[in-house]
Amino acid sequence: MKTVGVVVAYFPDLEELSFNIASYITELDALIIWDNTPEQAPVFFQPLTEKYGEKIQVQSTGKNEGIGYALNRAAEWGINNHYDYLLTMDQDSHFVEGSLAHYLKMIQKANRSDVVMYAPMVCLISGDDPAFDGEFREQKLAITSGSIMPLSVFEKIGFFQEELFIEGVDYEMCWRAQKHDLTVLKVNHVYLNHTVGNRKEFKFLGLKLHTYNYPPVRLYYSVRNLIYLYKKYKDKAVMIDYFYNNMFKRSIAILLLETNKRQKLCAMLLGFVHGMKGKLGVYKR
Fold first, then answer.
1. pLDDT per residue over 98-107, tens digit each?
2. DSSP label at 268?
């Protein structure tokens, strides 16, 4: 079971990135750092390449290509070099000690050909992902960070949709996989600490709200892509939850606590309009 990992970096904090990489690199056969930071000097990652040698390679085009592009290039590299699985990581996520070793053993034990992604238990500021009965649980969707994909999946159903750029790239792959009778399999007792923006929790009139302090462009992609994906795949339950938590409640949080309120709300509105029109690609101001 040869496994290559990819971590997508964008203006990373090298100390934090180094800490996070240390939580999973020992269990991998290779790790690609895909750098989406525009015009980042390769020497930036020299402490990591010196520490781990040829096990790490840094790839980049010198500009921000988005999440889907980075993951696709890593998948192509893994396929061309005869790897079996691809671990996809965000730069601000790390595994709890021992989790990845257990994760890989359980994937071998599952030995299923109908899985698009294996997913960990995700721990967020709002609480841990609750454990469940049994070793595995099927579910419809998973986030990119911490997921492990059989590389054979890309030959079955294609690669990530690069035109989404960021946000919803993982959900689109999961929804598309369902049409091919593939599923997401969550693995019990595999823990990933995952950071979502500069997230803070508070209550207002009985509502539990979160501030993420995302920049306007991130909010634009979030709204645009999920609107587009709802129109494409028509997963009503997911979209009701999305509208309630990520548009209604998020708008309240922005109005009450965040800065640049007007720019952020306008970006969300523009994302909604472009999502309805099916406009994808890089957002140009």
1. 999 999 999 9
2. H
CA 190 – CA 97 distance, rounded (Å): 10
Q: How far apart are CA 231 and CA 172, in angstroms?
A: 12
* CA proximity to 171, closest of 89, 239, 123, 114: 239
* Beta pairing, strands 3-9 & 85-90: parallel
Burial class (CB in 10 A: 0-12, 13-18, 19+), 140: middle
pLDDT at 186: 96
Give the chain's end-to-end CA distance (angstroms, integer). Answer: 45
What is the reported pTM? 0.92
217 contacts 283 by C-beta, under 8 angstroms: yes
d(CA 215, CA 211): 12
Convert the pLDDT of each residue in 144-185 to its tens digit. 999 999 999 999 999 999 999 999 999 999 999 999 999 999
Distance CA 127, CA 157 (A): 34
Structure tokens belonging to residue 159: 């690669």
- Residue 215 near residue 147, CB atoms below 8 Å: no
Alpha-carbon gap, residue 44 to 236, rounded angstroms: 44
pLDDT(60) > 60: yes
Contact 89, 20 (CB under 8 A): yes
3 state SS of 147: strand
- How far is 64 from 10, CA to CA, in rounded Å? 8
DSSP structure class, residue 164? G
